[in-house]
Amino acid sequence: MPEDCVQRIIKIGRKSLPSVLTRGMEIEVNSALITKDDWREPIMTYLQYPTLPSEKRVRIMATSYLMWNEDLVRKSKDEVLLRCLGKTEYMKVMGETHEGICGAHQGGRKMCGLIRRYGYFWPTMLKDCINYSKGCEACQKHGPIQQAPSIPMNPVVKPWPFRGWAMDLIGKIYPASSQQHCFIIVATDYFTKWVEAKPIKTTTSQEIITFIEEQIIHRFGIPESITTDRGSSFISRDMLDMAETFKFKLLQSTPYYAQANGQAESSNKVIINIIRKMLEKNPKQWHEKLSETLWAYRTSKREATGMTLYALTYDHDAILPMKIAVQSLRIAHQHGLIGEDYSQAMLLELEELDASRIDTLNKLLAGKQAVSRAYNKRVRDKSFEEGEIVWKAILPLGAHIAGYGKWSPTWEGPFIINQILEMGAYRLQDREGVIHTAPINGKWLKKFYPTMWDSQAVQTDPGIEKEQG
Question: What is the pTM of this model?
């Protein structure tokens, strides 16, 4: 099996009406008996027997029609005669035009233009063509995926340091380090943007628990919340027990929706870029460069806060090697201070720390609002109700299904909305009633349209009142 193929089980629903030729209808469009509920009947009656009583609107509409060999035809604006079709006939014509031997699965408007060009007409022609195109299962399965966001941004701002952390894993990393580390676990504080990271060999839940205890709780205290993705090591029973023991919220984003844990993803990119530039001769020594990377990151000014992570945490910048090699004014001034003056200077800095953090919070809020305004301009509202039938995108994007390869569909299903969760997330269930354990973001769902052959629209004939003139 090719490497880019994903082996998975795809449930195939058996169609009761699989194609145009097996729907119990012949392709030839011949004259059929005109019944009383046919939209053509009042017009044909008036044209054949104009002296009989008839409604005014029927008489007005009849000016655009004439009888031709016992068939009703419409006179178009360009003087072309279009044969008028009833329900059974126009369903055959739409089926053959859209998905027949010469059908190219066109959109509704183009399909309507083709049918007019072929010389057919009925009052709700455009609407029916659009509905037929929407209901085509092949078109729905292979349709494009909407990249625009489906709900407005919900920015996360923690008003104080180390109350909320975002966690994620980098990896699997190749080549592995000389100590066989294959992953990096990264945690980022929402307020200060302080980053803790550690190379690990495996992604077991015990590794994650040890990291949280040693790198977060023992250094910064118990947080209010930790946000992760839905990796198996993050949602294990041991992790849930730990969250219950320490009384912090363990929040998970939906699969394949990195925006929900954007802080962690942003930190990952910066760390990877710094390490990549530090490695020259031996890429297997990347685990030794991790501590230097964190130091460089913590002592760099961040645009979101306007301060370095070190200064925002301790209210003064770290002493860097260059300040010792080329003595700065700060170092020279400190060397001249006596013990009491030095203590007073440190206390003054600590008193100013709260004011600095309040200023930082205001900058964070202003920055988040600006980003939200730009993000929300791209939003295409999309929501679903419980019990609604939907398609689900095949994830990850671009995955090839074994046996289909290049011809793999982009959507699978249909599924049923079982539960509406927060922030645009949903829980699905199969038509057999099996509920999916993992939620899915609404961005990866789209509405399911039944085919016109199976929907109520096939059973109701457009009446004469739907005539558009």
Answer: 0.69
